[in-house]
TrEMBL record:
Protein name in the entry: Uncharacterized protein
Keywords: Membrane, Transmembrane, Transmembrane helix
Organism, scientific name: Caproicibacter fermentans
TM annotation in the entry: 6-22, 29-47, 53-73
Domain of life assignment: Bacteria
Presence of the UniProt keyword Transmembrane helix in the record: yes
Amino acid sequence: MNSFLIAGGITVILWIAEDLLCTKLKNPLWGGIIPLLTLAFTIYILATGMISFNLTSFIVFLILNLFIIEGWITGRGKYTKRQKAELDKMKAHDIDS
């Protein structure tokens, strides 16, 4: 039970960090660090046999990685929309002047 709470806490911290990196920073590579590390860690765990490679573990890790990559894509979309809204606001202000 203790390790479950620790893993859950780490997961929440990583999700928050991922959201901040994806939506606040101009360079999209910073937001891609956590998805790449997650993918590398997944490959390492399955390749070394820390967790036996079977259909269940594959599906769990696949869903985890897809969820994290989707978060990165969504975060970059939010960043792009926010930047476009700011640019539109600046253009509207320039036209009014």
